[in-house]
Amino acid sequence: MYGTRQMPLVRHALIPELPGRRTSGPLPWLTTIALVFVAVQLAFVVPGSGLAWDETVYVSQVGGNAPPAFFSAPRARGISYLVAPVASLTASTTALRIHLALMSAAALVVALWIWRKVLPTPVLVGAGALFTGLWPTLYYGPAAMPNLWCALGALTATGWVVRTLCGAAGRAGAAGAGAAVALVALMRPADGFWLALPLALAAVLVPGRRLPGLCAALVGGLVAGCVPWTAEAYAHYGGLVARLHRAGEIQGGLGWNLAVDDHLRALAGRTLCRPCDIGWESPATAVWWVMLPLLAAGGISAARRSGRGAVALLATATGFSTAVPYLFLVEYAAPRFLLPAYALLAVPVAEYIAYLFVRARRTRRPAGVAALALALVAHLGVQFSVLTHVVRTSHATSAEFAAVAGALNSMGVRAPCVVSGADAVPIAYYAGCASRQTSGHDASITPGALRELARRVPAAVLVTGGDAPPPITGGSRVVPLRDYRTYLLPGAATGGASTVPPN
Distances from the Cα of 244 to the Cαs of 137, 322, 333, 395, in angstroms? Predict the structure, then answer.
């Protein structure tokens, strides 16, 4: 179907006839998608970009421009390992962005290539184009954030599981699936769990194809990926249970929280919607999102006609599983959270679109083909419009942080130094200072210890709007600085050999 020849590969209760014969190779098409993916990032996302708040935390752990920022309980160090080869050598944001853009494009090709024995080329290429055409995918391609890598890992793991269940993977299937789950767990342990859960169940519940070895590989990959996070829990957080509890507190408490409407509103260009008490600014940006379940259902139905129903069903079920915590358990929204779901749901959606195109052509309905093409062009236009808005907003924010940091440097707050208060984490990074908070999620120092530290190195406390300054600022010199009131703590020097103690 869809211009590809099929041959029987494996037949059993849930996975019927699948394509096992190579057609015109998908690699040139996948390479083209990857090149366009990189080109859009380099042309529209990378130029003039600075590191966002979370990025400064991850990058500072392995180099960059400042001492390591406080690493709160929910975070995992996978993305820090990924950026380390560049961040340890240079503080250049552009170099880091190019590195990540190229890496993400190469990983995309690998992840899709794994599916080549169970999907025809049009569906495979369509899935890649649909996923890379989303504004969150393009925006986070060159970002030092873990979510896109979780998406690519989820796509890879599911591809290996499908191939293994179909008998089209050989010995590499279980190892590949386990390694991909380990990558996701290394980036975000919770995402690794919600990915491994449906895949492991499929490995032991599919009639006629129960593969306990595959299930063991998936569980082993999850455990292996969580080892660094677990070890750090015992080293710095008082144990695994204590870290899980603290991570839940920072995320607002994990429990029943219907965040579907929050995600709808965030699609208009909010990289983080917390609290998400805004109006629905642009409903048109969420039309594709509302249609996604219907398109996926249509894709499953279309795939069944071609003998790939179980493939589309497993991709859909796994995608839904990765979305569950963010739609129903976390009380805020960020479009990046659902990238793993989008990557997997692109498979059944591509099945449905390919089916509609073939049907329109076979019935000689050029109007139908034109309508589908126009709908896809309109969708991409909306995605690009939101992307430009997000890029413009993020560039302005990072430029503001950099300007405040430059002003602090000009006032004598230069490395070694410390910054506390509002937006201290990114501003400290740009200033080359350590960030230390006396309260909140990133609390890492007591007020007395910060006051003592200020006697040895330059220290500044930032306050915004009408917020009252903390008691520690008593007797400090106040300097208005853009949207901040900057309190230079008494005893701040302009240089010296003193260093800021680690967190």
Answer: 28, 19, 20, 34
> Two tokens at 325?
């915590």
Instruction: Find out whether the peptide bond into 416 is cis, omega within 30 degrees of 0.
Output: yes
- Using one digit for the tens of pLDDT, what is the confidence trace for 435-491? 999 988 888 899 999 999 999 999 999 999 888 888 888 888 899 988 899 999 987
Distance CA 359, CA 365 (A): 9
Contacts of 89 (CB under 8 A, 6+ apart): 63
Asked, as a colleague might, if the bond just before 275 is cis with ω within 30 of 0, I would say yes
pLDDT at 176 over 70: yes
Residue 201: which residues within 8 A CB-CB, separation 6 or more?
none
Tens digits of per-residue pLDDT, 47-95?
Answer: 999 999 999 999 999 998 899 999 999 999 999 999 999 999 999 999 9
For residue 446 the two structure tokens come to 């007591």
Do residues 485 and 477 lie in contact, with contact meaning Cβ atoms separated by under 8 Å? no
Determine how many CB atoms are found less than 10 A away from the CB of residue 305. Answer: 11
Burial class (CB in 10 A: 0-12, 13-18, 19+), 192: buried
Global confidence as pTM: 0.93
Over the stretch 289-341, which tens digit does the pLDDT of each residue have? 999 999 999 999 999 999 999 999 999 999 999 999 999 999 899 999 999 99
User: Distance between CA atoms of 433 and 65, rounded to whole angstroms?
Assistant: 8
384 phi, psi to nearest 5 deg: -70, -35
For CA atoms 175, 181, 187, 189, the dihedral sign is: negative
Higher per-residue confidence, 448 vs 277: 448
d(CA 311, CA 115): 10
Q: What is the 3-state secondary structure (H, E, C) of 211-256?
A: CHHHHHHHHHHHHHHHHHHHHHHHHHCCCHHHHHHHHHHHCCCCCC
Q: What is the DSSP string of 379-446?
A: HHHHHHHHHHHHHHHHHHHHHHHHHHHHHHHHTT--SS-EEEETTHHHHHHHHT-EE-BSSSTTB-S-
